[in-house]
Amino acid sequence: MIHHTDTWIDTTTANRHHPGESVIRFAFTLLAVFLVGTPMWMVFVYQTLSVVATQFNHANIALPKKLDSILSYIIVSPDMHKVHHHHVLPYTDSNYGNIFSVWDRIFGTFKTLAKEDLVYGIDTYPNPEDHNKIKSLLKIPF
């Protein structure tokens, strides 16, 4: 939820997560790596691509609409991912992809919404004025 409380989407949003979530994500990633036997070079390649893609698809940039649309058939483009940050359903339950957009298309979670209709944040978070106060954000899971 911390990631989604941001009301101004840019590359800082990509790094906005609860520390506890990061620990849990790391533990499950490590478990999967050991269970599947993924070579470390492959993990490093994926993590590198993931960081670059996350910064790109959260970037506050305006690609030409046609270019963004074409890119969204292969990779998660900024306009495509920002729909996921719209504050109400079904848009928050869409465009989950991080690197490749094909997964959202295959699983039916791909959605579009005009830029001018996007409203970022979470409509269920009780105190929108606390969205940028670190103390309040760290309390969210509790």
Fold and architecture overview:
The protein is an all-alpha fold and 142 residues long. Helices cover 49% and strands 0% of the residues. The protein has 8 helices and no strands. The protein has helices at residues 2-5, 11-14, 19-36, 40-58, 65-71, 78-84, 102-106, 134-139. It is globular, with a radius of gyration of 16 Å. The mean pLDDT is 88.
Topology:
Elements: H1 2-5, H2 11-14, H3 19-36, H4 40-58, H5 65-71, H6 78-84, H7 102-106, H8 134-139
Number of helices: 8
Helix and strand pattern: HHHHHHHH
Helix content: 40-55%
Largest sheet: none
Distance between the termini: 12 Å
Shape: globular
Structural class: mainly alpha
Instruction: List low-pLDDT spans.
Output: none
Which percent range describes the beta-strand content? under 5%
Number of extended strands: 0
Observed structural traits:
142 residues; mainly alpha; 49% helix
Question: What's this model, at a glance?
Answer:
This protein is mostly helical. It has helices spanning 2-5, 11-14, 19-36, 40-58, 65-71, 78-84, 102-106, 134-139.
